[in-house]
């Protein structure tokens, strides 16, 4: 069967947390790339009230095979009680880019160089 790809999104209330989630997912090879978008304005129901908050979105590029592990990592590291974790299938894309995503998300040894965040 051909490889399947997804974009996974989550949001958080702090850029530093979004950056940490992005870096952890890439370091663990659960995503080939993670992009931060924000700040964004979110309006939603929470505990019976309509809330509005400034958030940061993280968009992870990965394979469908890595989704469950990525979702676990997001859940484990996220500060929200109920974090958004949504996977959207990639129905088409550049073959070279998708091959790169597959290559970068192959399970393997973690690169220790990723422990030091760039400024």
Order of helices and strands: EHEEHEH
Q: Quick one: how many beta strands?
A: 4
- Oligomeric state of the chains in view: single chain
Distance between the termini: 41 Å
Shape: globular
Question: How large is the count of helical segments?
Answer: 3
Model regions low in confidence, pLDDT < 50 over at least 5 residues: none
β-sheet strand percentage? 25-35%
| Percentage of residues assigned to helices | 25-40%
Class of secondary structure makeup: alpha+beta
Report the average pLDDT across residues. 93
Observed structural traits:
single chain, 119 residues, alpha+beta, 4-stranded antiparallel sheet, 4 strands, globular
Per-chain topology:
Elements: E1 5-12, H1 15-27, E2 33-46, E3 49-63, H2 67-77, E4 86-89, H3 95-104
Antiparallel strand pairs: 1-3, 1-4, 2-3
């Amino acid at each position: 069967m051909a490889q399947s790809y997804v974009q996974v999104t989550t949001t958080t209330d702090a850029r530093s947390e979004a950056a940490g989630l992005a870096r952890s997912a890439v370091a663990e090879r659960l995503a080939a790339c993670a992009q931060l978008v924000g700040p964004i304005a979110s309006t939603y129901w929470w505990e019976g009230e309509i809330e509005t908050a400034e958030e940061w979105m993280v968009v992870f590029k990965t394979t469908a095979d890595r989704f469950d592990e990525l979702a676990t990592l997001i859940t484990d590291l996220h500060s929200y009680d109920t974090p958004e974790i949504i996977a959207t299938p990639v129905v088409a894309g550049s073959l070279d880019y998708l091959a790169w995503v597959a290559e970068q998300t192959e399970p393997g040894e973690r690169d220790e160089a990723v422990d030091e965040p760039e400024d």
